[in-house]
Backbone:
């Protein structure tokens, strides 16, 4: 079952065909999928206030109904160390197409994964897990399973990746928290099943996974075309 | 059996070909049907299926597409068991409406039919509805592989490949446009058929959410299911907004979801043949730790490379196991045989050395399958070795596959294995694929 708030977010995004990042993060939060501390700030003063509350460094990301792929237009700035830098970044973002504010979020660290979902014509909802980050389409290192996922599917999907050792510990980098990753994937799988045919596809990318925790840093939810 | 569409003028009409083969070569009473009536080959031609006096278990419909609805309603009135609609001219050529009409008629009457636009059914020794003259077909013997194909051409060609491998069929069905009876119906049928041990499919694509129902059904039955999929490269043609939609292309999802459910995906006709052969003997999954036995270092190395490429492991054997094998080897190879894995018995090995190696590998948990590379030109090998090693295999039941070059003079060795339930490949690749089949036969 989808929560009332989740229903509202999907409904509001219908005309656009996809869900703005801060709304997508909120939707994930309602489903129990861990997201960073974040706020959608509509002014510079609000952004500065939020950043002070979270504590520097922070990441700033542009919010615009006309920008689905933020990195492509330099609309993501990680590692902002102080108020001066934040003000500069904010000023730059205001000049991007369709600017409607910024997401200010805590900085995350760990290995980058992509967790995705799509409604496949032949098999219905499927979940994808793979090596994440901005180069996902270059590495194309992913594994797919029919949803709903079982707990055992998560280690099995990791094991299918060419780059699986990125996540199981290598050269002084500790293994990711498999229990948390599994929990996140299962919560996400439940959400995907509840969303059903309302979505076309979802990217959680990157998901930062460390030995301590797994958190979704960015999310893109594309609605099914008949709902646009 | 009724054959509707038999021509009094055209001996090469598909219906005539079917009538002839049933009439002459199968233990089936067949009735020719043509609206004009008359006499055909001293047999009365009935004007409609519903005029036939005796019971009709199956009607083969090979009339023009626009006459199919009338013939179908005759079958329904007659109370026939079912039909195979050979005729083309339906959804495949823009007449989806006509196809929907006959499907609705059949649904309403609860009347099963295969097709349209198909070859229909091949049931070895019982009957077939293929409009291909018997002398042109390669006809597999009765066996335990059930094969369902969206393409009639692929089905007939695969029958050639199965026959070359000595693999028999329980039933083969070309489902054509699959208007009513689809893959999942035949999956259920073959799952319940005691004569079928392996169920194989050639699939081009499923309908909306049909793949989901198919894999869930396949995962629930106890028999191995093998799928050869065509149309792998159509993915990624539509514009997509998300990475997931682009990365999880149609074929990628198909392949991963099959593996998730322990359905064995074959990537070629050759793999399909090897997988069906292997799984008809060994219908259960293994992890894929292979013991390789050879008389030639080169063959062992080639086999290891192929295994590694497939994801099979060829683990080193423990010292204890090597000591056990060595103690039972004949004196003249004891010091020259290499008992790493591959176990290389050398060209001086005799039958007893193979028995010693296979006995030890069959009993150890260090490997879960044995791949035997048997080169009969080695002088110490007798013609009894195939049968002897099969008996060793039967003691413990650990899967054993053999490679023996397929030339006529080694036939007795090959049959020594095959008649004793051990599959034999005609190439090293084929033998490795037979082991790989068992590895893929478990959920990934």
Residues:
């Amino acid at each position: 079952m989808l929560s009332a708030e989740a229903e509202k977010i999907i409904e509001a995004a219908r005309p656009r065909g996809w869900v703005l990042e801060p709304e997508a993060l909120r939707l994930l939060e309602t489903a129990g999928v861990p997201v960073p501390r974040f706020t959608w700030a509509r002014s510079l003063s609000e952004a500065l206030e939020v950043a002070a509350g979270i504590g520097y460094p922070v990441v700033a990301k542009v919010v615009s109904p006309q920008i689905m792929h933020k990195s492509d237009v330099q609309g993501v700035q990680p590692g902002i160390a102080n108020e001066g830098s934040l003000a500069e970044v904010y000023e730059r973002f205001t000049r991007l197409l369709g600017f409607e504010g910024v997401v200010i979020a805590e900085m995350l660290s760990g290995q980058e994964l992509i967790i995705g979902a799509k409604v496949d014509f032949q098999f219905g909802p499927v979940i994808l897990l793979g090596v994440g980050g901005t180069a996902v389409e270059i590495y194309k290192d992913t594994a797919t399973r029919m949803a709903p996922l079982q707990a055992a599917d998560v280690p099995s999907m990791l094991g299918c990746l060419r780059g699986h050792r990125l996540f199981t510990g290598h050269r002084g980098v500790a293994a990711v928290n498999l229990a948390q990753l599994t929990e996140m994937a299962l919560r996400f799988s439940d959400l995907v099943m509840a969303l059903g045919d309302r979505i076309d596809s979802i990217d959680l990318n990157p998901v930062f996974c460390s030995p301590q925790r797994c958190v979704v840093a960015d999310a893109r939810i594309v609605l099914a075309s008949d709902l646009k | 059996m009724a054959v509707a569409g038999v021509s009094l003028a055209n001996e090469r009409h598909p219906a005539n070909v079917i009538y002839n083969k049933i009439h002459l070569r199968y233990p089936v009473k067949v009735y020719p049907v043509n609206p004009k009536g008359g006499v055909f080959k001293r047999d009365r031609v009935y004007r409609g299926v519903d005029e036939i006096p005796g019971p009709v278990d199956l009607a083969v419909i090979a009339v023009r597409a626009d006459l199919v609805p009338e013939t179908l309603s005759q079958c329904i009135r007659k109370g026939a068991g079912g039909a195979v609609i050979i005729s083309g001219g339906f959804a495949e050529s823009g007449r989806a409406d006509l196809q929907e009409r006959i499907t609705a008629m059949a649904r309403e009457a609860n009347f099963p039919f295969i097709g349209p636009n198909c070859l229909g059914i091949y049931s070895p020794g019982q009957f077939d509805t293929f409009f291909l003259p018997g002398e042109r077909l390669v006809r597999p013997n009765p066996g335990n592989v059930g094969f369902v194909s969206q393409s009639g051409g692929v089905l007939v060609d695969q029958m050639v490949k199965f026959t070359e491998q000595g693999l028999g069929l329980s039933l083969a069905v070309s489902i054509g446009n699959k208007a009513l009876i689809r893959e999942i119906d035949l999956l259920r049928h073959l799952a319940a058929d005691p004569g079928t041990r392996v169920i194989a499919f050639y699939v081009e694509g499923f309908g909306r959410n049909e793949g989901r129902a198919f894999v869930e059904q396949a995962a629930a039955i106890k028999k191995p299911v093998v799928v050869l999929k065509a149309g792998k490269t159509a993915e990624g043609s539509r514009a997509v907004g998300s990475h997931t939609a682009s990365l999880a292309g149609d074929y990628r999802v198909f392949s991963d979801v099959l593996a998730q459910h322990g359905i064995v995906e074959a990537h070629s006709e050759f793999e399909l043949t090897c997988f069906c052969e292997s799984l008809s003997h060994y219908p259960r999954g293994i992890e894929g730790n292979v013991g390789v036995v050879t008389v030639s270092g080169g063959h062992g190395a080639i086999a290891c490379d192929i295994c590694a490429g497939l994801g099979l492991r060829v683990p080193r054997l423990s010292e204890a196991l090597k000591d056990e094998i060595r103690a039972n080897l004949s004196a003249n190879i004891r010091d020259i045989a290499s008992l790493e894995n591959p176990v290389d018995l050398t060209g001086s090995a005799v039958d007893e050395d193979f028995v010693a190696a296979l006995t030890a590998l069959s009993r150890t948990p260090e490997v879960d399958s044995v791949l035997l590379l048997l080169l009969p030109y080695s002088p110490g090998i007798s013609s009894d070795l195939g049968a002897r090693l099969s008996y060793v295999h039967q003691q413990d039941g650990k899967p054993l596959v053999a490679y023996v070059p397929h030339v006529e003079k080694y036939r007795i060795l090959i049959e020594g294995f095959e008649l004793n339930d051990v599959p034999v490949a005609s190439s090293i690749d084929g033998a490795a694929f037979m082991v790989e089949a068992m590895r893929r036969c478990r959920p990934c």
Q: What stands out?
A: The interface with chain A takes residues 205-212, 215, 240-248, 250, 252-254, 256-257, 260-261, 444 of chain B (CB under 8 Å). Residues 347 and 377 of chain B are 9 Å apart (CA to CA). Chain B is about 40% helix and 15% strand.
